[in-house]
Write a structure and sequence with these properties.
The complex is a heterodimer of chains A (78) and B (710). Chain A is an alpha+beta fold. Chain A is built from two helices and six strands; from the N terminus they run ββαβββαβ. In chain A, strands 1-6-2-3-4-5 form a six-stranded antiparallel sheet. Chain A is globular, with a radius of gyration of 11 Å. Chain B is α/β, with parallel strands linked by helices. Chain B has 30 helices and ten strands. In chain B, the strands form two sheets. Chain B has a seven-stranded mixed sheet with strand order 2-3-4-1-5-6-8, sandwiched between helices. A two-stranded antiparallel sheet of chain B has the order 7-9. In chain B, α13 runs antiparallel to α14. Chain B is elongated. The chains are: A alpha+beta (78), B alpha/beta (710).
Amino acid sequence: MAELVTLSSLAVGASAVLREFPKQGVAFLRLREMGLLPGTTLTLVRTAPLGDPIEIKVRGYNLTLRKSEADHIRVELK
Amino acid sequence: MNTVPKHISAATPSRSPVYALVGNPNCGKSTLFNALTGLKQKVGNYPGVTVERKIGTAYTQHGHPLTIIDLPGTYSLAARSPDEAVTRDVLLGRRADTAMPDRIVCVVDATNLERNLYLVHQILDLGRPVILVLNMMDVAEELGLRIHTSRLEHILGIPVISCAASSGRGVIELKLALSRLDLPLSRHAWDVPVAIAAAVSELQASLQDSDNKPPLIARAEALLLLTDSDRVRVAGSTPLSNRTHDILAQWEKRWSAESTDWAAELVNARYDSIGRLTAEIVSTESTSPIGPSTSDRIDSWVTHPVWGWLIFGVIMGAMFLSIFTLAGIPMGWIENLVGALSGRVSGLIAPGDFHDLVIDGAIAGVEGVIIFLPQIMILFLFIGLLESTGYMARAAFIMDRLMSKVGLNGRSFIPLLGSYACAIPGIMAARTIEQPKDRLVTILVAPFMSCSARLPVYLLLIAALVPNEQVPVGLKIGIMLLMYALGTFGAFGFAWFFKKTLLRSSPPLMIMELPPYRLPRIRDVLQQMIERAGIFVKRAGTIILGLSIVLWFLATYPKSSADLPQQEQLAHSFAGQAGHALEPVIAPLGFDWRIGIGLINSFAAREVFNSAMGVIFAVEDTGDEGTTRLHLRDALRAAERPDGTKLFTPLICLNLMVFYVFAMQCISTIAVVKRETNSWKWPLFQLGYMTGFAWTLCLIVYQVGHALGY
């Protein structure tokens, strides 16, 4: 398996496959329910002008989340 | 199907069926609701919570009425906010104030099928007749998505309507489906993962036995408990039995020990099932290039580090100027109209107490309500346009970092900005903030923003403060800006403080969809604007009217003999007596009873301070605002205390301005906070903490200033 990096460290425009996801926390449950599951492919679209939050494309729609959440999500670069 | 209890079976209901309308945010649900019900909508509140309850009436093709409850949009039945908890509770029949809907209309965004079907998947578990509406089919077709609705209908066994609500396509077909006497139950089946199946059965049994739930609802609720854990509870929702809670707790403990991620098991199983479903019904005719979409191209400008701020500044500037200045035009019309009406009515009633009650009490009170409508409507016009085009989410996206520094999120920006014009529309705009605590904090600090009613008071006091005309105009502007800055710092400081203490919550989430840009649906925007205005008049307006009549009464009675000059009349009224009574409290701030009368009268609207001072110091109203203010300024400069010293020293003028920056002195704000928080607790708290803070700060300013010899 390739090396895992955090979602927040992804470069703009990079695609990755989600691998590890925290079990606990309301935020992560909601992200899961919105379709961020291990194995899901996502793309980092951009970061906000002040660097936070970030915008990703997943399952055909655009979603924002803060870096504080993205720090805990580990992805595998494509 | 003998497990299906009678009241949720597909048989013909004896009365006209009640439909619930559910769907993800941004799926076009409101447009569809408006298309189905037109103007036959009633907006109220769910008792005990600040969640809006929208119920509309649609008609079948035979003209029979159908009730449709528009439930708050959500991505999942596992609730994260009070709005979502209401959707969950109504669908599960947990609310005593709302009967469980007979049938459910589930709206999904066809361009975004997988994520939207997650909610549908949960709803099909409820075992009630469902109509599935695939909305935005026109956009999906443009994107090259081909959705085989007949195949989907066959697999799920329920009516599937292909629709484009913005152009009206599919609305007739939906009405036909709604009119059906019988609707089939879904035959969609999916496997509960082995790891959690035993727990689901046990919870279901407990929900049936201890909570008296019908079997299918009990199963749906058991499944839901695994992802919801019943954490978000709202008033009006029936609690679950201890036994069910105990079983859930035991399982959670056991799974934690085994390191089974039960919520993930469930969500994954649902998405697996959805994945198999979409594989069968969606085919992509992807001839369209995979390059950036139009939305992506717009966003590269709108969220650009330079252009993004410029666009944001221009839009917010236009919005602010519109409520600050443009609204003045219709407000002038209202004043003229009410003036003409007063003149007419005045001639019809003989002079006396009744005449004064009608003219100065009732008609002036009504004017005090409708005068807010232009600002409210313009702000909600902008909000509606920004929401329906998709820009609102972008504004929150770029502002989030700044607002999160005080613990709020990007959505608090517009309510606070709007409050510089007037706190009433600003506070009403706070309902676009999802998280209840963030919404409340925003409402609590919004009146610190210096509103347009404070402007005349600042102008008068600055004129009285600055000794003569040779002083550079920059100083006057500087003092004015200082007052605006003080209020702004106050708002952000208290927001930070409340988020750290009283309304502490986990840092607000910023998990938000950025929907594709769309052309605004003017009809929906206008309907929302008029609805907001109507709610304001009905709910807040009645309180404002009542309170302003009380204020008028206090400033008019008891009447002394008619030949006394006006200032004596006011001094002897209840308000005047209150000013005297207040003197011991405000004397440490350097204010006397005459200023006290001004403070009390300001509750009608802060600018009334000026006219109250005019009455007290017997300044003639010349009819021209500028000239009157000059006369008033001279009167204030001349005013003396009983010991012959000046009353309005520079220190007092400054201190009075500081008081106006921070004190809560506006009955209309109190009324609207009552309406928006659904209780008297918060407006009274706000009155107390803001005025208390103003008093303390003014005490320090005056005592320090006085000690320094000013």
